[in-house]
Amino acid sequence: MAPQPARRSGRSGVLELAVLGLLHESPMHGYELSKRLNTMLGAFRAFSYGSLYPCLKQMLAVGHASADGEPTGSRSRIVYRLTADGKEHLQNLLAEAGPSSWEDENFGVHFAFFSQTDAEVRMRILEGRRNRLEERLDHVKTSVARTRERVDSYTLELQRHGLESVEREVRWLTELIETERRSDHRTTATDKDADSSASGTNFR
Amino acid sequence: MAPQPARRSGRSGVLELAVLGLLHESPMHGYELSKRLNTMLGAFRAFSYGSLYPCLKQMLAVGHASADGEPTGSRSRIVYRLTADGKEHLQNLLAEAGPSSWEDENFGVHFAFFSQTDAEVRMRILEGRRNRLEERLDHVKTSVARTRERVDSYTLELQRHGLESVEREVRWLTELIETERRSDHRTTATDKDADSSASGTNFR
DNA sequence: GTTAGCATGTAAGGAGTTACATGATTTT
DNA sequence: AAAATCATGTAACTCCTTACATGCTAAC
User: Fold this and answer.
1) CA–CA separation, A162 vs A169, rounded Å?
2) Are residues A108 and A44 in contact, defined by beta-carbon separation less than 8 angstroms?
3) How far is the CA of A99 from the C1' of C20 (A)?
4) CB-CB under 8 Å, B108 with A147
5) Which end of chain A is more exposed for a tag (fewer CB within 10 A), N or C?
6) Do A112 and B172 touch (CB under 8 A)?
7) From first to last of its 204 residues, what are the pLDDT tens digits of chain B?
8) E-strand spans in chain B?
9) Which residues lie closer than 8 Å to A4 by C-beta, 6 or more apart?
10) Would the CB atoms of B42 and A139 count as touching at under 8 Å?
11) Minimal CA–CA distance to A183: which of A198, A193, A168?
């Protein structure tokens, strides 16, 4: 039952965040966006044109981006640029610290834009991801331990390698968290003087 | 406009292989299947009931599995078991060494069933995956090197960690490949002396 | 003068997830 | 007696991919 609000097909995956984030650094055309995306996330994810262009189209439609260049006439290089609405939307997305920011597919993108993210949110995302991974570690370990039957050596090797990979990421996160804490010398303290913590968004 | 015959949704992802592989080891009901799946792949992937049960349903429909237990009446524990067709289908899937076996989402599942896989195919999959990762490494490295503009430290750290992870997996694969070659003690070797008949020596 | 890379898009659909819906059995 | 976990399923939807379609420009 439950009529269900029929949520407007909102094109709201990580891709949207990635595009907003890159366009915030500087205006760009689609093809360049695509390459930057795949360099930035290289080892983790890839996006294809088939999702990028529709995403850009929809960003125009909802007014998060505007298109310079020559959209009509000669067909080459349509340069996209964030609107005020787009920037606001980006800030909202970057302010979220929840599963959507620390799940496997999303974490990389959120992390890539950490320099545009509030220090507190960064910390919550890093810790959120670490918790997530530790839970998974726990779950797998107990369920492996509980398994009476012996598994074949390949399955075992896969599990071993998987656990090791996850443990490695946990250590990485722990180091990052400690670094954050150290560089975050008592921000909650008295002064609100402009410390350099925030956006390293210099020119370009 | 050719409405297009609406190709019956064929349910042919990794999940199918995973289920076939587990059922080949022993008959099981859905819930147990689900747990085994998530233990086996724990660190890499997870599947939800929302995909598992439809998959089982379809396997019944196409005759790859049969259901014991009490499907009618009291509702508990429907035990699935592979049919001859199902076993054949599994063998076909396991014999494939192509992108579908070494891509990120699929490799883990294929690897998990390596003990049911031919040694030659195992080798081609391991090498296929390693090549894939090395290409990616290359691509990212050159495209990073080509980047004139300096990227912020978080993006950099993400790239560094990503590269390191991939390099680590490459080393892992290399070790596995060497182990495989060793345990495969000179099947093709002694070629200099034993192989007088020149071509077509197919080992098994 | 042909390959490779630049540049933009669309249609169809694949492979899964989320949220819902239900109930039995075991543990606390 | 409540909470957890066992057990099975469906409908709607999401996000992205593949394959197609087009044409320009630089390098070899």
Assistant:
1) 11
2) yes
3) 21
4) no
5) N
6) no
7) 433 444 444 568 999 999 999 999 999 999 999 999 999 998 889 999 999 999 999 999 999 999 997 655 456 899 999 999 999 999 999 999 999 999 999 999 999 999 999 999 999 999 999 999 999 999 999 888 888 777 899 999 999 999 999 999 999 999 999 999 998 766 554 545 444 444 433 333
8) 28-29, 65-69, 78-82
9) none
10) yes
11) A198
| Planar angle of CA A29, A115, A181, nearest 5 degrees | 165
Nearest chain B residue to A146 by CA distance is B39
Q: Look-up: residue for tokens 């609000």?
A: A5
Nearest beta carbon to residue A39 from set B111, B147, B165: B147
Cα–Cα distance, B65 to B30 (Å, whole number): 12
Distance from CA of B190 to the nearest CA of A (A): 28
* Interface size between A and B, measured as CB pairs under 8 A: 96
d(CA B20, CA B90) in angstroms, rounded, equals 6
Q: Which residues does residue B80 pair with via DSSP β-bridges, in sequence order? A: B28, B67
Using CA atoms, how far apart are residues B192 and A143, in angstroms rounded to an integer?
A: 50
Q: Please say whether the dihedral angle defined by the alpha carbons of residues A194, A195, A196 and A199, taken in this order, is positive or negative.
A: negative
Which residues of chain A lie closer than 8 angstroms to B176, CB-CB?
157
Helix, coil or strand: residue A79: strand
For A137-189, the pLDDT digits (tens) are: 999 998 888 887 778 999 999 999 999 999 999 999 999 999 999 987 665 55
Whether A154 contacts B115, CB under 8 Å: yes
CA dist., res. B36 & res. B68, Å (int): 19
State which protein residues have CB closer than 7 Å to strand D. A 4, 6-16, 46-51, 54, 75-76, 105; B 29-32, 35, 49-50, 53-54, 56-57, 71, 75-78
Three-class SS of B123-166: HHHHHHHHHHHHHHHHHHHHHHHHCCCCCCHHHHHHHHHHHHHH
pTM value is 0.86
